């Protein structure tokens, strides 16, 4: 009997082709709409004053179609990890919501829009294909449909992200790390990569996407390696703090009061006041302009802090939009600032800061490394590997998307420990039997405690009933 179900392989292949085309189309539409909104802002700067109204309109749109108002990339990734269904209305809602935020000058990106649209459309496209696991062993144990919602959403996310950044390998790795290397996603990696390749090809034909300028990368020397480690360490600490700050502000606002309309109004008002008061109009929007300037070696010493603060106000207070392009921009600006310590090339430091900062914020090192190579060129692989490894090691704990790759390593270590216990020495096996006996004794003790608790509750009820009867007699 064959291990692979041939019919399901064909269905998965057809689904990958379709989801790749749909993901590319979604990315192109997103870019055209958001870029058009930013163009209007450039022509009419007074639209900044309407940001609070635009933020409220975005939330009202979410409520109108039943999409949770606290939907973020983090929450979408969590739902995918739990194999839940994503609302098909999320795609148009995040598209319009991101455009409205950019129209008001908010410091947000469109990458979350691509991820959310991809997840929503991926599950929608998968419906007529009736996808099941391609492995017959899953069908034998009745698990052939388990995880198919997560797989379809992951395929859509990866395709749309691949088309947006023209980075198929990094996009597939990013989705795998976002989903905690969920078993069904990893086992269907070939079709996931096929969808990314189709989306990348489709977006390349149009040329519409987030085109990040390339920089001339130097050869590896001891001095350059030292600069990679230094930039990686600084970006690792700062990136972790940036992701944690957004998460903590969101959690704090929800803890104080779950009124997202109120917080969006407050955040928008603060953003408008800061931009107008300090003259920070140059930091409006996704940050693509500042990113290009940083990669060209032109950036102020504290520009990264300004962009980080404005992004924190927008995302922490629940405005619609993404965090990845602002993260890239903050990282690149920080890399330029690090040249005061390294004395190296500003453009190279900006590229290193971009990948290291993104790694620390997301806790997705493989995605950061691959995207750095695909965006700036594979000749920089040793440099990006040093910067990413340093950023990942200097920052522990969760990123903005929860544990990211850390969850995969933690699960792998847990499985390794369990295998060691199962295949240990005879003495260890004896210890395992003792542990099993202790566990059985604990279960028996728990049952005895439950029985005694029920008996006590019954007696207490009888006593209470008798007291009430006596009380009624005394009243009479």
List keywords for this structure.
476 residues; mainly alpha; globular; disordered C terminus
Shape: globular
Share of helical residues: over 70%
> Count of DSSP helices?
21
Q: Write down the secondary-structure element order.
A: HHHHHHHHHHHHHHHHHHHHH
Mean pLDDT: 88
Structure description:
By secondary structure, the chain is mainly alpha-helical. It is built from 21 helices and no strands. It has helices at 6-43, 51-64, 73-81, 90-103, 111-126, 136-140, 148-165, 168-178, 183-187, 189-206, 222-256, 260-278, 288-295, 303-316, 324-337, 339-342, 346-362, 365-376, 381-394, 405-422, 426-475. Helix 1 crosses helix 7 (148-165) and helix 7 (148-165) packs antiparallel against helix 8. The longest helix is centred in the C-terminal third of the chain and has 50 residues, at 426-475. The N and C termini lie far apart (83 Å).
Short overview:
The chain is mostly helical and 476 residues long.
List the helices and strands and how they pair.
Layout: H1 6-43, H2 51-64, H3 73-81, H4 90-103, H5 111-126, H6 136-140, H7 148-165, H8 168-178, H9 183-187, H10 189-206, H11 222-256, H12 260-278, H13 288-295, H14 303-316, H15 324-337, H16 339-342, H17 346-362, H18 365-376, H19 381-394, H20 405-422, H21 426-475
Helix pairs in contact: 1-4, 1-5, 1-7, 1-10, 2-4, 2-12, 4-5, 5-7, 7-8, 7-10, 8-10, 8-18, 11-14, 11-15, 11-17, 11-19, 12-14, 13-15, 14-15, 15-17, 17-18, 17-19, 18-19
